[in-house]
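Narrative summary of target 7.
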Amino acid sequence: MANIMSKDVINVGGEEKVVREDTAKAYRGVNWALISIAAFILILAGVFAVLMLRASRDGVVGSPVQHDNQTNR
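Modeled conformation, tokenized:
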């Protein structure tokens, strides 16, 4: 009896390839993981940029402890 396995189509480099269903799921899983990591890095970079802009508005860029020490004098 022949091996009956589900097949699925994935797009690799602009070319469609027929692969086993588990291979296609793994391929899509890796793509989603890479997209999620990239989105996380972009969000962190945006938050960092906003925080740095807010910190630099008063002309003093330093840690909060340094800022408190300067204002308490």
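The chain has two helices and two strands.
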